[in-house]
Amino acid sequence: MVRLYVVLGVVAVAFYVFSIVDCALYDSARVRVLPKTAWVFIVLIPLVGGGLWFIFGRSRRGSAGAPARAAAPDDDPEFLGRIGRDQELEARIRRLERELSDLDDKGGDSDKPGRSDA
Question: Are 75 and 69 in contact (CB under 8 A)?
């Protein structure tokens, strides 16, 4: 029975230290419910404070305050929109090159210097 109390004591101390360090090093912009300084004082309450910190104070992955996770290219609307713009730009470039080549083909004597339409 004594071993169980020792193990539980070590786990409680490890959780207490971990929650204090996690709260102190956590980004202030991602803290929920209370300001970070208030959470630091709450976490100093053994076990209960750490539990409250992990349940209410720390933002969850994927929440509004958390940084966005990298998405696959086919799931990223910005990437998909850029593909459409790139295709439009390439089509416009091809059309302009075709028009320029048509103008070059229609042009007369290319040995004369200067503009031919002047």
Answer: no
Say if residue 50 is in the same domain as residue 18: yes
Tell whether pTM > 0.70: no
Cβ-Cβ contacts under 8 Å for 74 (sequence gap 6 or more): 80
Residue 77: domain span:
73-106
Say whether pLDDT at 118 is over 80: no
- Indicate the pLDDT class of residue 76, thresholds 50, 70 and 90: confident
Domain tally, the chain:
2
Domain annotation covers residue 63? no
Phi, psi angle pair for 31, to nearest 5°: -80, 135
* Residue reference for tokens 């086919």: 74
